[in-house]
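Example record used in the benchmark description.
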Amino acid sequence: MLLTAAAFDQPVSVLFVDDGVFQLKSGQNPEVLGLKDTSAIFRALAVYDVNDLYIEQESLQARGLDPADLILPVQVIARNEVNALMQRHQVIIQD
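Model output (structure tokens):
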């Protein structure tokens, strides 16, 4: 959905929270478990001009991660800033 919206020149931002932060963790090897490596999809976001990537600070900390552990540069925001971020967008898709 992200890439489709971006392909039609819609501004797209992505917020990673809770266990979603693991999607960006570097050094994963999902093939060992018979899973697909989805990191290539996230690396393709820049090709579609999806550069507004946010990650919730508390979610990172709760999982023992920091921005240096991630495959993409993100803007770290505090939990109390999430509502203001969401208010800046007209459409919110939640998964």
